[in-house]
Amino acid sequence: MRSLRGKTAVITGAASGIGRALAQRLSRERMRLVLADVDRRPLRELAASLPGAIAVPTDVSRMRDVEALAAKAYARFGRVHLLCNNAGIAEYGAVWEVPLRRWQRVLAVNLWGAVHGCLAFVPRMIAQADAAHVVNTASMAGLVTPPLAGAYSVSKHAVVALSEALVQDLALRRARVGVSVLCPGWVATGLARSGRGAADRMMRSLMSRGLPPEVVADRTVRAVRAGEFYVLTHPEMAPAVRRRADEILSGRAPGAGMLKLPRSRAASR
Ligand SMILES: NC(=O)c1ccc[n+]([C@@H]2O[C@H](COP(=O)([O-])OP(=O)(O)OC[C@H]3O[C@@H](n4cnc5c(N)ncnc54)[C@H](O)[C@@H]3O)[C@@H](O)[C@H]2O)c1
């Protein structure tokens, strides 16, 4: 989708981080914006700061909310050209140490949120006269599997699979709806803000040194314009994807992947 001006974008998780940067970037492209998030106050403040943007408080883990979001966007603007299924939460810790309720929540937001977005918007996008595009925010943790992030990785691998299935199903139907799956490495956002465990502290530290979200927003806009499917933001992490493919084909278990685990003094001598 080369031209964005005057078209309509819906962004979930718009109140903070990558979603917020995307909203600001797309506003500069003169898009009309429908901004969705569970965090109402920053959502309203952001919408008020961007001309023509509307805020729709939404919990993406609830199909009812996402259906209402789609209904509002179509009632207001008639069509939606760009859907960014971006809302997400982090969850770190060893697979067996993440409590069941946290496993359920991370899948409900990260995976079901994106599924709900597809169910509510894609049929409307197929039916509308204009071409459209869906961007699902996965992660490098959807292409490789780092340790101590099992619940999060499961959700993001599923978002990659969802996107890969979606793009092929749309092609079979000859629908004028494109798809991109955004797979960032570390981005300096508040994603890991709340956890208290050692893994959370390590992720926070890695994220604080990550890419500015504005750079990820620029990269996303370029990808939408160029119709790129896999959208990587950290070229230095790309070899990890090849390593995973080699591990799969040779039967080896994954190594420490992209995480640089602290080495003991003895090991580093
Ligand atoms: N920060 C990183 O290093 C990184 C790396 C790869 C992928 N991602 C992904 O990028 C996306 C955006 O995250 P971010 O880094 O900007 O974090 P962030 O915490 O700054 O922003 C996420 C936003 O999603 C919202 N949200 C959470 N649960 C929601 C729900 N149920 N319904 C609606 N909104 C909800 C939050 O309120 C927040 O505003 C996520 O999907 C995340 O997994 C982030």
Task: Describe the protein.
The chain is α/β, with parallel strands linked by helices and 269 residues long. The chain has one domain: NAD(P)-binding Rossmann-like Domain (Rossmann fold). The protein is built from nine helices and seven strands. The chain has helices at residues 17-28, 40-49, 63-77, 100-127, 150-172, 198-208, 213-226, 238-250, 265-268; strands at 8-12, 32-37, 54-57, 82-85, 132-137, 177-183, 230-232. It has a seven-stranded parallel beta sheet, sandwiched between helices. Strand 4, helix 4 (100-127) and strand 5 (132-137) form a beta-alpha-beta unit. Helix 3 runs parallel beside helix 4 (100-127) and helix 4 (100-127) runs parallel beside helix 5 (150-172). The longest helix has 28 residues, at 100-127. The chain is globular, with a radius of gyration of 18 Å. The model is unreliable at 261-269 (pLDDT under 50). The structure holds nicotinamide-adenine-dinucleotide. Nicotinamide-adenine-dinucleotide binds at residues 12-13, 15-19, 37-39, 58-61, 86-89, 109, 137, 139, 184, 186-187, 189-191, 207, 210. The site of nicotinamide-adenine-dinucleotide has 29 residues, from helix 1.
